[in-house]
Amino acid sequence: RSNPADGKGGGSKAGMSENRNEPVVRRVLLAGDSTLDPLGRLLERGQETFQLRTSAAPYGQVYQILLDANHPAWAFEPDVLVVWTAAQLTLPSLGKLLRFEFESATALYDAALREVEQFAEAVLRAAGRVGLVLVPSWILPTHERWVQTLTWRQGTGLANLLAKANLMLAEKFAAQQNIILLDAGYWQASLNRPSYDPRMYAVAKILYSQNLFEKAATEMKAVLRGSLGQAKKVIVCDLDNTLWGGVVGDDGAQAIKLGAPDPVGECFHAFQTVLKGLRSRGILLAICSKNDDKFALSVIEEHPAMALRKSDFVAWRINWRDKAENLLGLAEELNLGLDSFVFLDDSPQERDQVRQLLPQVYTPDLPTSPAELAPFLSSLNCFETSSLGTEDFERTN
After folding, report:
1. 48 backbone dihedrals φ, ψ, rounded to 5°
2. Is the CB of residue 386 less than 8 Å from the CB of residue 11?
3. How many Cβ atoms from other residues are within 10 Å of residue 354's Cβ?
4. CB of 129 within 8 A of CB of 74?
5. What is the mean pLDDT of residues 344-371?
6. 320, 290 in Cβ contact below 8 A?
7. How far apart are CA 225 and CA 96, in angstroms?
8. Residue 14: left if φ>0, alpha if ψ -120 to 50, beta else—which one?
9. Peptide bond preceding 261: is omega within 30 degrees of 0, i.e. cis?
10. Label partner for 278 (CA 20 to 30 A): which of 98, 247, 385, 386?
């Protein structure tokens, strides 16, 4: 039903096949217009399936590093290059627009776009020296408030310029398979705490907060895992209190909480909808539940609020046997390694047992509130891929 080698994440030198018995090692060069040493330390921390070795080049030498193949930074012989720059520093004209240092906003806007083009060309030149280049998109500190009535105005507004600058980078890099433009705007939006640290920038030119560095490191590791074919490929779900609220064997099919108008039922329907989206992009869905097989499958097929149907699942183990044993059976049936599995179960006891017996399976703790299930699943970064195609969309079939 699926090819165990089909990671859909390779293609560049950074994604070459590796001996699964040996840790994959990648050397990462960090180049920025501010100090990136904290990012390097986080990238090297807590590695299991692959190891990263980092070197942070002196800040403020981005163009020298990108354009000069003989720059001392390249002596590190990196496999991966991270180019993380701040728009207000790398694009001088944008910085002036931010501070209202202009006579003609239109002229400054146009000058900034020319600077974007120069930066993109420099990245393209450097891309031939490494297997993979990661470029976080440009963001501004959340405390930078521009004139709200003008900021999205075409040809003069700051928000308009920042969006256009990022779109230009996406267009310039589109044909280059080994350059990935990362969504730093998502990193910043996902934080509950400040993403910039003015005090540390004054002391050591460390522009970003520890929170943002941690998020960036997590997301970069996810991208690198995907490039190495180490992304997860299968989600195995429990049923009771996971796909729906309640215990179907005790409560009956009509009494379970699933769908409107019950607010808890709507939360479980939203969770199923996220699963459906992952299934549509090529992640395989399976079931592992202690339940009556025929009764549970009839609920899946017939309950009017089910977003998922039997045809959305490639395999199932619905019985009263040990869940670790059932997961082994699913791996054998699908011809996939357990390290490609994600197991979702509301029971802490079941999760702990699977973690102890099958540590290769990623078994996250699920939120206790049904309202948090869908956002939690949407935020998982273990399904990263460098491309999506027809094969992905048809994988479940």
Report:
1. -120, -55
2. yes
3. 25
4. yes
5. 95
6. yes
7. 39
8. alpha
9. yes
10. 247
Determine the pLDDT at residue 8.
36
Nearest-CA neighbor of 221 among 43, 41, 15? 43
Per-residue confidence at 333, pLDDT binned at 50, 70, 90? very high
Angle between helices 37-44 and 210-227 (to 10 degrees): 50
Q: What is the residue type of 283?
A: I
pLDDT tens by residue, 249-274: 877 778 889 998 899 999 999 999 99
pLDDT tens per residue, range 280-309: 999 999 999 999 988 899 999 999 999 999
Q: What is the CA radius of gyration of the chain?
A: 24
Select from 183, 187, 174, 65 the least CA-distant residue to 119.
65
* Closest to 114 in 3D by CA, of 150, 161, 67: 161
Q: What is the per-residue burial (b if ≥16 Cβ within 10 Å, else e) of 292-308?
A: eeeebbebbeebebbbb
Stated as kind and residue range, the H or E segment containing 132 is strand 132-136
| Type of residue numbered 48 | E
Q: What is the pLDDT of residues 16-75, one digit of tens each?
A: 334 455 678 899 999 999 999 999 999 999 766 789 999 999 999 999 999 999 999 999
The yes-or-no verdict on residue 244 having pLDDT over 50 is yes
C-alpha distance across the termini of the chain, in Å: 8
CA angle 372, 377, 4 (to 5 degrees): 160
State the greatest distance between any 2 C-alpha atoms of the chain, in Å, as a whole number.
Answer: 75
Report the alpha-carbon distance of residue 340 to residue 226 in Å, rounded: 12
pLDDT greater than 80 at residue 393? no
If you average pLDDT over every residue of the chain, what do you get? 90
**CA neighbor of 217 nearest in space, from 61, 30, 33:** 30
User: The tokens of 11 are what?
Assistant: 């293609």
Q: At what angle do helices 158-173 and 105-127 cross, to 10 degrees?
A: 30
- DSSP summary character for residue 320: S
